[in-house]
Amino acid sequence: MGEKGQMALVTGASSGIGRETAIRLAEKGFKVIAAARRRERLAELADQAQGITPQQVDLSDPEDVERFCREISNLQESVSVLINNAGYSIRGALEDVSMEAVRRVFEVNLFAMIRVTQACLPGMRRLRRGTIVNLSSIAGKFTFPLGGVYASTKHAVEAITDALRMEVRPFGIRVVAIRPGAIATEFNEVANQMTGDLLSRTAADYKPVAGLPGFRRQFGEGICRHFYSRAGFDCRHNLESCSL
């Protein structure tokens, strides 16, 4: 990914994948800018390893994102590793989800990712090297009932990542998408905080969809078909062992 002493920027660094990534990069000798909204969590993170500089930013606030990106653009040393990790989920039938909630999740999951990437790219082009890692999701390849808004942000992340990879390859910049599945982080807790209890706020007509019989198996089989086909295997003989 790079050499010791290079500058790395990790968004969503106060918990989960972002926090662990920031710590590991610092332990490997990177100078890490750890960006997140929760000031107290950032202070705790800075104590975990040398070389971590906490930067508070609310990625749901476009003005704060612009302020943060100006600071990144004005750094004396260019960012050579960017981990676009920040993101969260909202859940609910499309009819039930407020437009305010839709806009906010797009601000964090997509628009802030694009803007932070724009701020880092000029420096990477000057260096003629760099690595950009965009945290997508398995939901960037599949969607499911009551998860359409979140999945749409991650489908967009996939498209941006693919296009950017082709655009910046001539400059020696690598662009990678990572698609986590279920991981033991605060992700579900945050989703519950943002949308409340799913079944209690879902309109009665949609509750049968939330408990769609056999959905877990169908979703699992879809995932297996995708990855087995990518690997060149005949998925028909392997679904029973890997479906959910």
Key features of this structure:
2 domains; 244 residues; Rossmann fold; 10 helices; globular; alpha/beta; six-stranded parallel beta sheet
- Assigned CATH architecture of the largest domain: 3-Layer(aba) Sandwich
Give the low-confidence spans: 237-244
* Structural class determined from secondary elements: alpha/beta
Gyration radius, rounded: 19 Å
Termini separation comes to: 34 Å
Number of domains: 2
Amount of beta strand: 5-15%
**Mean of residue pLDDT?**
84
Number of strands: 6
Number of helices: 10
Q: What name does CATH use for the topology of the largest domain?
A: Rossmann fold
Walkthrough of the structure:
The chain is of the alpha/beta class and 244 residues long. It has ten helices and six strands; from the N terminus they run βαβαβαβαβαβααααα. The chain has a six-stranded parallel sheet, with helices on both faces. α4 (99-127) packs parallel to α5 (148-168).
Quick rundown:
Helix content is 49%, strand content 14%.
